[in-house]
Amino acid sequence: MTNEATIATPVPKSRGWRRYQELRRQDAADKIEIMRGLLDGLGRPSTMADRIAAEQIASLVIWARVLERRGALKAAAEVRDQITRTQRANNFKPQPAVPQKPSGDDFLEEMQTCATPQEAE
User: Fold this and answer.
1) What is the average pLDDT value for the chain, to the nearest integer?
2) What is the mean pLDDT of residues 61-85?
3) What string of DSSP letters covers 13-72?
4) Quick check: 42 and 50 in contact, CB under 8 A?
5) Which of 4, 25, 45, 82 falls 20 to 30 Å from 106 in CA-CA distance?
6) Would you tell me the crossing angle of helices 73-89 and 48-70 to the nearest 10 degrees?
C-alpha cells in the first residue's frame, strides 16, 4: 500500500527559480564577453597569465553585479576595489599603441604635397 506522502508529485518551478536560472545564464554569457573584450584589447597575443587574469577579473565583475542586484552595495564596492587591485597586480595592461609608419610611396607623396606651393583660389 502506498502512502500519499511518499509519492513524488511534480512541483512546478516557481517564477523566482526561473528568473534565477535566467540571470545565471546571462551572467555566464557576460563573463565570456568580458573575458574576450579584455583579451582582444591587449593588442598582443595573450599568454596563459593574461587568460587567467582575464577570467579572474571577469568573475569579479560578475560577482560585483550580483551583489549590486542583491542590494549589497558596500560589498560590491569592495569587490570593485579588488578588481582594480587585481588588474594592477597582474600588470594587465594593453600594449602601448605604436604609431604606424607610412610606406615609402605614401611618404614621398605626402612630402611632395607639402613641398609644392598651393595656388590661391
Assistant:
1) 79
2) 91
3) PPHHHHHHHHHHHHHHHHHHHHHHHHHHTTSS---HHHHHHHHHHHHHHHHHHHHHHHT-
4) yes
5) 45
6) 170
